Amino acid sequence: MNKLGWSLMAMLLLSFSVTSCKYLKRKTSKKEKAAALKTKQLADSISLSIKTDLNKSDSLIKNKAEQDSAQLMAQALLTESAPIWQKKIEFTTMSAKAKMHYEAGDKSLDFVANIRMHKDSIIWVSVTVAGIVQVARAIISPDSFKAVLYTEKEAYEGPISLAHKILPEGINFYSLQNLLIGNPILRNQEAISATQDAENWIIRFVEKNYIEQVQYKRSDSSLYSNQLLLQGSGNQSLTHLLSNFGLVNNLNIATDRKLSIVTDTSTILVDMNYSNITINSELTYPFSIPKNYTIK
């Protein structure tokens, strides 16, 4: 898996532009390191739990009778929890201002991403620093990808395959859309298991080579954690933690997000804080490439 691809997913398709701007980089503070370590430890704990369960599930079933009983119990729990995990955040348009903090190794970045989406057709992102300096803008559709790096006077324009070169296999427009709104990341997933405790439902989905574990609060059905694992790929995962929920047009939207992106060689941590959220408002998606920019 391409570690830059995971980074791009977390950074809303624009980390490649932000990390190219040297004046944005700074050393990570002790407080930031402590917060990042806490997020990573939680993400690692969830990942270990999933992998442990997957490894032991077959060994616990000793005969066909036990297997049949386990399958019936699993199906009953999936049916009972279906009203929760089948429900998605439905919207036509969404916009938000996202304050972003990025950690990778001993470096950190702070910037603001202004996000606009039209469901199943457009994701538009504009990145600014210091509240006024625009450094990049991108627009992606299910079949095309465009980006402008204002600090480098460069642009990218082409079919969606251009984005696929830097996004990992299986991560596409719809995955990014689901991540930004707060739905399960996989689009065409199949629910394979459900477990519960006093406070939570834990649902696992599978799509191609990916397993996604999603945790919902029983009290209000809010999705507060999901983790994506690529099977057979070593230690590679994306963990998304959601908190501080509030109603926007009667939809329960998380305003605080934490992302942990783990590859075989690196760990990237991202904090996102949403504000100025709108749902189903009329939006515009301005985008143009200056004539003197180099198109790659």
Gyration radius, rounded: 20 Å
N/C terminus separation: 23 Å
CATH topology name, in short, is outer membrane lipoprotein receptor (LolB), chain A
Count of folded domains: 1
CATH architecture: Clam
Structure classification? alpha+beta
Report strand %.
35-45%
* Main sheet characteristics: 15 strands, mixed
Q: Give the helix proportion (percent range).
A: 25-40%
Write the element-wise H/E pattern from the N-terminal end onward. HHEHHEEEEEEHHEEEEEEEE
- Continuous helix count: 6
Give the overall average pLDDT: 79
The CATH superfamily appears as Lipoprotein localisation LolA/LolB/LppX
User: Rough shape?
Assistant: globular
Low-confidence stretches: 1-26
The number of strands is 15
List the helices and strands and how they pair.
Blueprint: H1 3-10, H2 15-18, E1 26-27, H3 30-57, H4 64-85, E2 93-104, E3 107-118, E4 122-129, E5 133-141, E6 144-149, E7 154-159, H5 161-164, H6 173-181, E8 190-196, E9 200-207, E10 210-217, E11 223-230, E12 237-248, E13 251-262, E14 267-279, E15 294-295
Parallel strand pairs: 7-15
Antiparallel strand pairs: 1-3, 2-3, 2-14, 3-4, 4-5, 5-6, 6-7, 8-9, 9-10, 10-11, 11-12, 12-13, 13-14
Would you give an account of this structure?
The structure is a single chain. With about 300 residues, the protein is α+β, with helices and mostly antiparallel strands. It has one domain (about 5-55, about 75-295): outer membrane lipoprotein receptor (LolB), chain A, CATH 2.50.20. About 25% of the residues lie in helices and about 40% in strands. The chain contains six helices and 15 strands. It has a 15-stranded mixed beta sheet that branches. A hairpin with a 4-residue loop joins β6 (about 145-150) and β7. Residues about 1-25 have low confidence and may be disordered.
